[in-house]
Amino acid sequence: MHLPIPAALLAAVLCAPAGAQSFTYDDFSDWTGISPVGLTTQSGSVLRLQGDLPVPNGSDNRGAAWYEDPVDVVGGFDTTFTYSMHTPSTSGGSDGMAFVIQNDQVAGVPIINGAPDGTGNQALGRHASAAGFGLFTSSLPGESVDNSVAIHLDTYANGSWGDGDNNHVSIHTGGSGDNSQHEDHSLGRVTPGVNLNDGLAHSVRVLYVPGTLEVHIDGTLVLSVAYDFAAGGTHLDNGTPIGGLDLIGGTSAYVGFTSGAGAAREIRDVHSWQFASAGGPGTAYCFGDGTGTTCPCGNPAASAEGCANSSGAGAALAGSGSAGVAADDLALIASNALPGQPGLFFQGNNAINGGAGVVFGDGLRCSGGTVIRLQMVVPDASGGAQTTVAIAAAGGVSAGDTRTYQYWYRDPSGSPCGAGFNLTNGYSVDWTP
Ligand SMILES: [Ca+2]
Ligand SMILES: [Ca+2]
Ligand SMILES: [Ca+2]
Q1: Which end of the chain is least crowded, N or C, by CB within 10 Å?
Q2: pLDDT top residue among 191 and 11
Q3: Domain spanning 283-430 has what CATH number?
Q4: If you measure from the C-alpha of residue 242 to the centroid of ligand 2, how many angstroms do you get, rounded to a whole number?
């Protein structure tokens, strides 16, 4: 993935203070901002959660990597990473890896391999088959990545943990207590069409809109569960309600990856990673989900996006930074547009049709009135695009103004209506001094 952000700006994003709303790693040749735990290393341009190393206690290998600062999750987030699990020591490898949202509050004790179980951005769970976020039958309280939600890419069938096969995606939580790799902690699971550890690079997108947590693999929605970080969800197998997380300041958590392998080792690499809190300073609106104006040629599968494009997904618009005119640090972040196809961020001064939008091309036009073109940006390989201009200055904005934003993008081949262009949802900002 490659976001066309100048290096100086990228460095500024990566060095943003606690509470940063978004970050992007095109690759991990510079892994500034990453907190590695256990076996995790930087290897060339990848973040290697674990290698195929003959470690002293070879039956229990674990690594974790966290973005070092907490990020806002309660208002929603959209994150995409690419990974590969490859070079197994024996056929199939084992146990898999996870994307985890956590505010681990209980340290365990140093255990096998000397890998610590700290808290926060030093957290690591117990035992290989727990993939670095769960625990073992002999674990003490807190030895998991407690107070967490884990999206487990599970590549080994452990009968004792309730696994039905060796290739499933399962979303685990124990609320604010210990998490567990046991399927009795699952909010939902699926066996995707993709072989998760076939050695190839796959993209995983995790989209959270309060009330719904979605997992997309290689551009396809594979799993959607009802969940809210404040209210919690329901465990799938026993129908038991489980509470939400105890977030930092009620809003934020650490995000990152864990991995585990037993005697059947394999290498787990993260190649790129993009994260954006959906909250930001503005409000997203005008979604192609059928709640407002109906999309002309089909709604997207996911919520909180624009109308479906030729990839089958809808493009989304979010923000980061502030709504302060003086700071003028608002960035608009589009995701799921078409790689390599130019698009335009623009500003309006009203939300068309009461925010429901009107049909325009393959999508909905949500931002109108006096329109100002802000910046043309070509999306990266994952369809992500981000503004680099000073928006308040470019848009002639004063404190007290409400302005609406949208991203128009080309979709020249195979677009649902054949119009050849589409748009994200709208994003409304109340500017402040
Ligand atoms: Ca813990
Ligand atoms: Ca398993
Ligand atoms: Ca499992």
Answers
A1: C
A2: 191
A3: 2.60.40
A4: 22
